[in-house]
Design brief:
The chain is built from two helices and no strands. By secondary structure, the protein is mainly alpha-helical.
Length: 138
């Protein structure tokens, strides 16, 4: 492998490394967005369940938790006193998406380590070729 080949390969590896790092950064930004959305959902649930009497954020039509729209005086059973199913489903969906992003991020981090190792290898080859090809007076 000549010096020009090594330089060209090094340039390609630098470009690939930049692409992988940008993709990882994009994944991290998406994960931050998911965490923000999960926090908002958790705040809504916490406020509705523990802090206030305003259940309209989690109940249709502003009904009290455990009451049916047809007869607000008859309580439902204890299985779901506060109807949080929509929010729990949304949180589960977001957590699933976060797990997918985690898996993709780990794969890219492994690829990034491989690219870094190959860059180091190419740098050593370039140094050796430069010493050999551009030796003065030897």
């Amino acid at each position: 492998m000549g010096f020009a080949d090594v330089v060209t390969t090094t340039l390609f590896l630098n470009r690939r490394r930049s692409d992988v790092e940008l993709t990882i950064q994009s994944i991290l930004q998406r994960k931050l967005g998911i965490m923000d959305e999960c926090n908002k959902i958790s705040e809504i649930l916490a406020e509705a369940i523990f802090q206030g009497d305003n259940y309209s954020a989690i109940s249709p039509g502003g009904l009290l938790p455990g009451m049916t729209p047809s007869n607000p005086l008859v309580e439902l059973g204890p299985e779901d006193p506060i109807p949080t199913g929509y929010y729990e489903a949304k949180l589960a969906e977001l957590q699933g998406l976060e797990k997918e992003l985690d898996t993709r991020q780990k794969k890219l981090e492994i690829e990034l380590e491989a690219v870094k190792a190959e860059q180091e290898s190419m740098q050593k080859i370039a140094d050796d070729r430069a010493k050999k090809d551009f030796k003065v007076g030897g």
